[in-house]
Specification:
The complex is a heterotetramer of chains A (171), B (691), C (99) and D (508). By secondary structure, chain B is mainly alpha-helical. In chain B, 70% of the residues lie in helices and 3% in strands. The longest helix of chain D is centred in the last third of the chain and has 32 residues, at 330-361. The chains are: A mainly alpha (171), B mainly alpha (691), C mainly alpha (99), D mainly alpha (508). Chains A and C meet through helix 1, helix 2, helix 3, helix 4 and helix 5 of A and helix 1, helix 2 and helix 3 of C.
């Protein structure tokens, strides 16, 4: 338990730091790299929570695909690499206030709502108690209960693909 | 034919459609269709009338009273002469069903209906023929005939109606036709104003009719049927008050349609239409629809106004006032049609008064005779305008001395005038006398006096009118000649009727055909007044009329000799004031046009529009604007508090935006998103606190 | 481990994402911030899934990842379009709707 | 024909959607094809409607027929429940009928910015929403269709509208959206308290088991949603703006069908489901209705714009419909449905003419018009005919909406204040005079007199062939309904009596 907690806090700190990096960095490519850190951290958190399959999907899709996409985007839009012009707009201050306020509200509510409820993942002897994150369990769920949404998501992806092509095409 | 009377109005309906769509292609522009259709209707109406007379004869012949009396017991049947009950012939089909009430459409043929069928179709036929000449060159000849057909159809529908709802339908449709025909020459503003005025004024009265029909519907335990309404009214079903209210409302309808005081002002203006239309609609048929309504549902008035108890009642008072004011106004008109129009108002006053004093037969009889001589007078005036004065109706400027040029018109016009003045033995004498006698013998002495004064005035203004038109020197600038045959023949026919019509009910000679054939025997007041011929009264009224003619003739013809009287109105300030008052039609028109209509159209309408735009809409817009203002203020203050000194962007942006009005709608997605998230946070907080 | 530590981490990440969405001018960076928010949501989903012992959360996390990929694709296409039309990826130039 | 019984209503709703799909897939340049497809779809839909007319069991007009009831969203127990009775039948046919005529009228009258494809697609989408609303027997389904209607109309005004279109369309949208939000709240409250979204179930349940305040509040929510749509005074201010700015076809559909969604909602949902509350609300609804009658009429008198005048006249006429509904009697509800159909035909027709006048003269300012009868006599006659029908001339359709409504106010449902309603009756009757006033006044200025100098030498088109095709059916219907009102009354009577009895049963 303690080890897991330690892992958690280390990862959490890294993620928060990297996240702040994403939104504060004055270099676009750096921001993208910070994002990699956050995503990898999130994947690690998933493993902590016993969801291995999702964790690997996270790594493959986010770190593997999405980040590449972002890099392409940065390249294609010739985003300024160094602080030639500010990457931020003029509402930084109100934005900070709003997000802090939101964080406060959310935090308070969460503490009120869930207090000290435990997440039990492994038993006293370290044996795995949780099976919900296993690939087999997930596959069962996806292809039985959630098969219709699954198909719809596939359609959505197709639509997004076509849409992105149509929009980005020069004509 | 009695069961198939629906054919009579159906034929003109058909002819209306045919003329409207094919009339222009016909060699005579559709007039032949109209004449043929109305002619057929007239024939059928005659057949219906004869069959009805036979029915009455059969009833009295067979019965000896006993059997049929028993049959009619409990139906509020009145035993006629010899106790004969003649049921009206009612044939109906289902029209619609709603809320547990089945409303039928159909015909109710009885004496009153056949009399009206005869009058309407006859006069309509004559007017159709007359118009072929009178409107020969008119631009909208075909549409004119279509409208005439529609009018005839509507009036006949009204006449044969078996229930009050159907009556209301016909009633409104004749109003429409009146509108169409008054506004026939719609290029001129004055004509269209007159048309609008006629429609709106009668429609004001129609509110009364509509409510009256509704009240009688409920008072008769949810029935529109005329027989049931009358029977329920006479039985006093659901209490007396409801019938009083119902009768008052119906009276308002009559006032509007039949040009009674104080809604009479549209009728003279309606003379803007072609003259044959004035004859047909505004003298002989449509305007008597009000009187017809009164006669049709007489039970309601009898019960509502407690006519049997004598004294005063609203109906008689309205009629009485109308007689006097109509006649008085007729004196000061220079336009021959206006004289006749005011005379019509006055004569309609007689009819309404007759109903009010319990002289049902008198009212209906006067309606009958008046239709002939007033149509005659109007058509005569039209003939004068057509051939004598070149489409002018101004007696003082363009007429005078026409008797030499237009002998047929002159003679027939004279007959009409004498009949109107009520000189023995022409039609007007008999009917007017019937009314006066009934009033005198049944506790309405006041109205006898009013009637006599009215007779005096009638005789006088008609003398003036005839004198100005036909005597003296010709004052126009054209070449007067006699009118063509299509015009004179209807005049001659009508003159014939004006002479003989009175003998239909000449009580002096014990001819009481109206009492025998026309007066209903079912659902009719049992104790309606009988009347004896009052020879003294008759002599008095004729005497008065003759005196009036004499004085008036002296006044107008012998003006030169009576210098003392000449210019009297100019010299005496009191008389002058009176004259001005009359010329201005009691200023009622000003009240209506300027104060009421102007008020509604102008200030009130504008005010409510203003209220709409500024207050109601303003509140809505105000809420929106207020919200924006609040949002703006809040935003600006918070913005400045937060941003002041920290970020100078806002100020720059505000400047860019060109004012303080627009920071909220920056058009920038992120600005919106900022507000969105702030709002989400606030709502979440609110939910957390209050939830 | 208590549930809340995951949830609060997610909340913090989410709010940082919000800040980024609000304060970043560059379209690509805004999209990245959106990804941050989506990741936070995923953490929530997985945490609840473990807490409630139901695989629904995991399944939805997968859907979210898929949709996030689609969203980035379309979003970048839009940014590209903006860049092509306005010669800059900056979102505050997109203000045609200004009132 | 069992197959037809099961599928007729679904076809009636979704055939236009199919046509919409096809139209959208056509290339933009193929305007002619898009027109043909749209017209074909609407005609086929109308054919389904005629099939329904033929299959309808007139002996049981008071009951729901052609029922379709499938579970839809299980979690909230919402059903795909369609049904048709004598009350919805005339409205459904009217909606199909007017859509066809609108497409015909549009044939060469497409307003700027042309875009035939988009315009036709919106008309078809509107038809989906309208037909669906009249057939839905489930509150959620009803709500969805009710809202679907909003969108195409918003775009129609916002894109094809007049100079002030943005303001008008947003006002229209926000107003109605506000109303429907409260209406949805009412629906949800009903669901949570009564456990169903099914209209027949809820109607059978009544509101006897609800607390007084609760049912009044729920009715209030529904009232706002429907009253804004009707629109009743004082929620009417969106209407003149929307009508003035909307393209002709938009105005016609708005006046002919969309306004009826509100009144239909009262008859179908608010009153049968909440009879107790309806009794309490009725006098106030009646009051607002008569204020609307008089107020709308006064506003008409102040107008100089022909279309705006017709728009305000709608406020006045819908006042009669609402007065009929407020009496909660069989007479009143019958009159209301008749009034809805009649107003749909007549005002729709008036808007058609208004559009054509604008098309030919380029203005709707009555001060600049005049002598229409001289330059375009046929159009002048049709305008006169419609004005007469609109002012409630007996023998034409308008009368049967007006007169029975006034009649019903004499004797409202047992227990309602007779004095109040009789006062309303008199005021409403006075409203008929004002109606005659403003309509004839408009007619005088537009049609009578000589043409104004600026148009004296203009070449003015009289009614075109396309217009004849689109208008003749409406004109014939106006006459047919006016002469033989039983066409509608025989359909509506059973249903209306049933509703009136529901209310009477709970009355004290």
């Amino acid at each position: 338990m303690i080890i897991q907690n330690i892992f958690f806090w280390v990862l959490a700190l890294a993620m928060v730091g990297a996240a702040i990096g994403v939104v504060r960095s004055q270099n676009v490519v750096h921001a993208a790299l910070y994002l990699v850190v956050v995503m990898a951290g999130a994947a690690a958190q998933f493993i902590l929570l016993g969801a291995e399959f999702v964790a690997w999907v996270q790594v493959i899709i986010y770190i593997g695909a999405v980040i590449i996409l972002f890099l392409f985007g940065i390249m294609l839009t010739r985003a300024p690499m160094r602080g030639e012009t500010s990457l931020d707009n003029d509402q930084r201050f109100p934005a900070a206030i709003v997000s802090l306020f939101l964080a406060g509200v959310l935090g308070t509510l969460l503490v009120q709502a869930f207090g000290k409820k435990e997440v039990v993942i492994s038993g006293a002897k370290g044996e795995q108690l949780l099976h919900v994150g296993k690939a087999a369990t997930l596959a069962d769920s996806i292809f039985t209960t959630y098969v219709v949404p699954f198909e719809i998501v596939s359609l959505l992806l197709l639509a997004a693909l076509v849409g992105a092509v149509v929009m980005a095409r020069r004509d | 034919m009695l069961e198939y009377a629906w054919i009579i109005p159906a034929i003109p309906v058909l002819s209306f459609v045919v003329i409207l769509f094919f009339g222009k292609k016909m060699p005579k522009g559709g007039s032949e269709i109209g004449i043929f259709a109305v002619g057929t209707s007239f024939m059928l109406a005659c057949i219906t009338a004869v069959q009805w007379f036979q029915r009455v004869e059969n009833a009295s012949g067979k019965s000896g009273g006993a059997a049929l009396s028993a049959f009619g017991k409990g139906l509020f049947a009145r035993a006629g002469e010899g106790g004969v009950i003649v049921q009206p012939v009612v044939s109906t089909v289902r029209w619609f069903q709603m809320g547990g009430v089945t409303v039928s459409i159909g015909t109710r043929i009885d004496g009153l209906a056949v009399m009206m069928l005869f009058v309407v179709t006859l006069i309509s036929l004559l007017v159709h023929i007359y118009s072929t000449a009178y409107l020969h060159d008119d631009v909208r000849f075909t549409y004119y005939y279509a409208a005439l057909s529609l009018f005839t159809a509507s009036m006949l529908t009204l006449v044969v109606a078996s229930n009050t709802l159907q009556l209301l339908v016909g009633w409104e449709l004749v109003g429409l036709c009146s509108f169409m025909l008054i506004g026939h020459w719609w290029e001129e503003q004055a004509n269209t104003n007159a048309a609008l005025k006629a429609f709106l004024t009668t429609r004001t009265g129609d509110v009364g009719l509509m409510i009256g029909v509704i009240i009688t519907f409920f008072a008769a335990n949810q029935s529109f049927d005329i027989g049931k309404v009358n029977a329920s009214a006479l039985a006093g079903l659901n209490g007396h008050t409801i019938w009083l209210v119902g009768a008052s409302c119906l009276l308002i309808g009559i006032i509007g349609k039949s040009g009674q005081f104080p809604l009479h002002t549209w009728l003279p203006d309606a003379m803007a239409g072609p003259t044959p239309v004035s004859a047909l609609i505004h003298a002989a048929t449509m305007v008597v629809a009000g009187v017809y309504l009164g006669a049709r549902v007489y039970g309601v008035f009898w019960q509502g106004f407690s006519i049997h108890s004598g004294g005063l009642n609203a109906m008689a008072i309205v009629g009485g006032i109308t007689i006097l004011i109509g006649a008085a106004l007729a004196f000061v008109q220079d336009d021959i049609k206006k004289v006749l129009a005011y005379s019509t108002i006055s004569q309609l006053g007689y009819m309404v008064m007759a109903l009010g004093v319990g002289s049902w037969v008198g009212a209906v009889f006067h309606l009958f005779t008046h239709a002939f001589f007033k149509a005659l007078l109007f058509l005569g005036a039209g003939s004068v305008a057509h051939s004598g004065s070149h489409h002018s109706f101004d007696m003082k400027k363009d007429m005078g001395g026409l008797r030499k040029y237009m002998p047929v018109t002159f003679i027939t016009f004279m007959i009409g005038s004498i009949a109107l003045a009520g000189i023995f033995p022409l039609a007007g004498f008999w009917s007017k006398d019937e009314i006066l006698a009934t009033a005198g013998q049944n506790g309405f002495e006041l109205f006898t006096v009013v009637g006599l004064i009215g007779a005096l005035m009638t005789a006088a203004y008609m003398t003036r009118c005839v004198y100005l038109t036909f005597f003296g020197e010709y004052r126009g600038h054209h070449h007067p000649k006699e009118s063509p045959k299509a015009i004179t023949i209807p005049l001659i026919v009508l003159a014939g009727f004006s002479v003989i019509a009175g003998f239909a009910n000449a009580s002096l000679f014990d001819i009481e055909k109206f009492k025998q054939y026309i007066e209903p025997t079912v659902a009719f007041p049992k104790n309606i007044f009988g009347v004896d011929f009052d020879i003294g009264l008759a002599a008095l009224s004729v005497g008065i009329a003759l005196t009036a003619i004499g004085i008036a003739a002296a006044f107008w013809i012998e003006r030169k000799e009576l210098k003392g009287l000449k210019g009297l109105t100019e010299r005496s300030s009191v008389l002058k004031a009176g004259h001005t008052f009359l010329v201005n039609k009691y200023y009622l028109d000003y009240l209506y046009t300027d104060v009421i209509v102007g008020g509604i159209k102008g200030p009130i309408a504008r005010a409510s529009y203003w209220v709409n735009m500024n207050i109601i809409d303003g509140v809505i817009n105000g809420v929106g604007k207020g919200a924006t203002v609040i949002g703006r203020v809040v935003y600006r203050d918070i913005d400045q508090l937060v941003v002041d000194g920290a970020v100078n962007g806002i100020a720059r942006e505000t400047d860019q935006a060109g004012g303080l009005l627009r920071p909220l709608q920056s058009g920038r997605v992120q600005r919106y998103a900022l507000m969105l998230f702030a709002a989400v946070g606030l709502i979440a907080l609110a939910l957390a606190i209050f939830g | 481990m208590i549930l809340n530590q995951f949830l609060i981490l997610a909340a913090i990440l989410f709010c940082i994402g919000v800040y980024g969405v609000l304060a970043r001018r560059n379209g690509v960076l805004v999209l990245m911030s959106v990804e941050l928010m989506l990741n936070a949501v995923n953490i929530n989903l997985i945490a609840f899934s473990a807490y409630l012992r139901s695989s629904a959360g995991d399944v939805f996390a997968l859907f979210v990842i898929t949709i996030a990929a689609a969203e980035v694709g379309v979003g970048l296409a839009i940014v590209l379009l903006i860049y092509r039309n306005l010669h800059s990826p900056d979102l505050d130039r997109v203000e045609q709707l200004k009132g | 024909m069992n197959w037809f019984d099961d599928w007729a209503l679904t076809l009636a709703i979704f055939l236009p959607a199919l046509g919409l799909g096809i139209v959208l897939m056509l290339p933009k340049a193929e305007e002619q094809l898009a027109k043909v497809v749209a017209l074909g779809t609407s005609l086929v839909t109308l054919a389904v409607g005629i099939g329904i007319l033929a299959e309808f069991d007139y002996g049981k007009a008071g009951r729901l027929q052609f029922n379709v009831d499938e579970p839809w969203i299980k979690v909230i127990n919402a059903h795909y429940h369609l049904g048709l009775d004598g009350i919805s039948l005339p409205m459904l046919i009217l909606s199909m009928f007017i859509t066809v005529l609108c497409i015909i009228y549009s044939w060469n009258h497409f307003p700027e910015p042309h875009n035939v494809k988009g315009f036709l697609a919106l008309i078809l989408l509107l038809e989906v929403g309208m037909n669906g609303t009249f057939l839905a027997e489930d509150l959620i389904l009803f709500f969805i269709f009710f809202e679907i209607v909003l969108l195409p109309m918003f775009f129609m005004i916002g894109v094809w509208g007049g100079p002030n279109r943005e303001y008008a369309s947003i006002k229209f949208f926000l107003f109605t959206l506000f109303g429907s939000a409260l209406m949805l709240l009412g629906f949800l409250a009903l669901f949570f308290l009564q456990g169903s979204f099914q209209i027949p179930t809820l109607a059978a349940l009544g509101d006897g088991n609800l607390a007084e305040t609760t049912r009044l509040l729920i009715f209030g929510g529904l009232f706002l949603g429907f009253a804004i749509k009707v629109p009743m005074f004082p929620f009417h201010t969106w209407l003149p703006d929307a009508h003035t700015e909307a393209p002709t076809v938009g105005s016609v559909l708005l006046a002919a069908i969309l306004l009826k969604l509100g009144t239909y909602g009262f008859i179908r949902i608010a009153i049968p489901i909440l009879p107790h509350a309806a009794r309490i609300w009725a006098p106030w609804i009646g009051l607002l209705a008569v204020i609307g009658i008089i107020y709308g009429a006064f506003c008409c008198l102040a107008q100089t714009d022909m279309k705006r005048l017709i728009a305000f006249s709608s406020v006045s006429h819908m006042g009669f419909v609402m007065l009929g509904i407020a009496t909660l009697t069989s007479f009143g509800i019958n009159a209301a449905i008749f009034g809805m159909v009649a107003h749909g035909l007549i005002t729709g027709m008036l808007f058609f003419i208004g559009g054509s006048v604008q098309h030919t003269f380029g203005t709707r300012e009555m001060g600049r018009l005049g002598g229409l009868l001289k330059q375009a006599p046929k159009m002048g006659w049709i305008l006169g005919f419609c004005a007469m029908a609109s002012l409630g001339l007996p023998g034409l359709a308008g009368f049967w909406g007006e007169f029975p409504a006034v009649l019903s106010a004499y004797q409202p449902s047992h227990g309602l204040s007779t004095d109040a309603f009789r006062t309303f009756m008199v005021i409403a009757a006075v409203g008929t005079v004002l109606a005659a006033g403003y309509l004839l006044w408009m007619y005088q200025r537009v049609a009578f007199g000589e043409p104004k100098p600026e148009f004296a030498n203009a070449h003015i088109h009289d009614v075109t062939t396309v217009e004849w095709i689109a208008w003749t059916p409406i004109l014939l219907m106006i006459v047919a309904l006016g002469v033989y009102p039983d066409i509608i009354f025989s359909l509506t009577n059973d249903g209306a009596t049933h509703i009136a009895n529901l209310v009477k049963a709970v009355g004290g």
